[in-house]
Amino acid sequence: MASRQNKNEEDDESQNPGSPYYLHLGENPGLILVSPPLDGNNYHTWSRAMKCALLSKNKVKFIYGSIKTPGENEMLRDAWERCNVMVISWLTRSMANQIAQSVLYIDNARDL
To answer: What is the pTM of this model?
Structure first.
């Protein structure tokens, strides 16, 4: 019974549009949130635009690290992983190919 209750709580959190764990059906890893892409010469303007884009999607906490990685058995682990990977995808899709390739194996949006 307890695991069912935990699963229901996770579903509620990841389905709540006010939660940082919520992903709208229209959001996908192919979105380019910022243009022009980060190319090494435009970091300050790119960074500002990316923070605004992530803030509007309620995902900026993933890059600031204020949402800690839940433990393997914690109820929000799956939702955290989905959001973390989505943020990583958005970040790397908004970078020049050379930069994106150099950060390809970073697994945490905070570290990126």
So the answer is: 0.86
Q: Which domain holds residue 62?
A: 32-112
Euclidean distance between CA atoms 101 and 33, whole angstroms: 18
Q: What is the DSSP letter of 57?
A: T
Please give the Cα distance from 110 to 38 (Å, whole number).
Answer: 17
Element (H, E) at 62: helix 60-64
100 found inside a domain: yes
Q: Is residue 16 part of a domain?
A: no
In a domain, 111, yes or no: yes
Tell me the per-residue pLDDT of 53-103, one tens digit each, with 9 for 90 and over. 999 999 999 999 899 899 988 889 999 999 999 999 999 999 999 999 999
